[in-house]
Design a protein that fits this description.
By secondary structure, the chain is α/β, with parallel strands linked by helices. The chain has helices spanning about 10-25, 35-55, 60-75, 80-100, 120-145, 160-170, 175-185, 195-200, 210-225, 240-250, 270-290, 305-325; strands spanning about 145-155, 175, 230-235, 255-260, 295-300.
């Protein structure tokens, strides 16, 4: 509970619950529904009276407390009530922003931002400012195209080698997820360093949200350092990785290339199992990437490094031409 220290936190929780109890009877009536403020109050008033009548036979005191708390909230009689009213409006704005993120920035729910003028408490305004800053950054980020190539492929196919060659040839930034995680796990200034280190040592997957934030940070570092393009390998490992990346970082992360091994004859059972696991896990990712016409290249990773590199280089050149043609 983030209520200021000078407020009764238990009272804040009770007020919030009682406010929702009224809506459980009549529903959450939005501002744009065309219902007047007076009529909305009347509907919710009868909702709390109904709850009170249900409780009267078994616990009339509780029924009275709920109705009193609801009136306290509606009329803003106390500092606790005013704070919870602010949080109710802020929560609505946060939900609108989250929907904007889920629709990849295609939805601009600016109308919900009008609620900001109704937030009056100092703590409410502080939270509001953080939300507005994050929302502004979100839309600014959407206007900027992150030029990425995801290098995805089965184990032992030489992804890292091809990335190194491409970076040398084109001046790209190479982002290896494993390298990023190890780097941050030893960074004393990074607040989650110890947690990431433990995840790596215990072979526990780092939470997706944390992984994506680290990748975004690395991409931005490259852009600031003059690296227009980034090669990312080790991510995504599943469709959920890719979808969440699109939601939080960029829908128009321009290019993806898939390196696959054409050889079925694998002697090492462990490697064979890892390749099979990759194919199963990666099937949805592959289909998702293929859905974006012109953004996907599949390359046979068998053969000499130079031979594969020739095909990869040609694919990258086509990617660059594709982007420049859309610019």
């Amino acid at each position: 509970m983030f209520a200021p220290d000078d407020l009764d936190k238990d009272r804040c929780i009770f007020l919030a619950l009682c406010h929702d109890i009224a809506e459980s009877v009549v529903g959450d009536i939005p501002t744009f529904a065309g219902v007047t403020k007076e009529h909305k109050f009347k509907l919710e008033d009868f909702g709390t009276r109904y709850i009170q009548s249900l409780l009267n036979p078994i616990n009339p005191t509780l029924g009275t407390k709920i109705r009193t708390a609801w009136l306290e909230y509606e009329e803003g009689r106390t500092a606790e009530a005013r704070f919870i009213r602010d949080m109710d409006k802020l929560e609505c704005m946060i939900q609108a922003y989250e929907y904007e993120q889920r629709t990849f920035g295609e939805k601009d729910l600016e109308e919900f931002q009008g609620l900001s003028s109704k937030i009056s408490s100092a703590s409410g305004k502080a939270w509001l400012e953080l939300l507005q800053q994050e929302r502004q950054a979100h839309f600014s980020k959407r206007k900027r195209r992150n030029l990425l190539i995801f290098v995805i492929g089965a184990p032992g196919i030489g992804k890292k080698t091809q990335c190194a060659l491409l970076c040398q040839k084109f001046g790209f930034q190479h982002i290896s997820l494993d390298d990023v995680l190890h780097e941050r796990s030893h960074d004393p200034t990074y607040p989650h360093a110890e947690f990431v280190k433990d995840c790596l040592e215990e072979k526990v997957e780092v939470p997706r949200e944390l992984t994506i934030s680290l990748l975004e940070r690395k991409i931005n570092e490259g852009i600031e350092g003059g690296k227009k393009w980034s090669l990312v390998h080790g991510f995504p490992e599943c469709i959920q990785d890719l979808v969440e990346f699109e939601e939080k970082v960029d829908l128009t992360h321009v290019n993806k290339t898939l390196l696959t091994s054409g050889s079925e004859a694998v002697d090492e059972l462990d490697v064979a199992k890892r390749i099979q696991d990759f194919r199963v896990r990666n099937a949805e990712v592959e289909n998702h990437l293929k859905a974006a016409e012109g953004y996907f290249k599949e390359i046979n990773g068998d053969g000499h490094v130079e031979e594969v590199h020739g095909e990869v280089t040609q694919a990258v050149k086509e990617f660059i031409q594709h982007v420049e043609g859309r610019a």
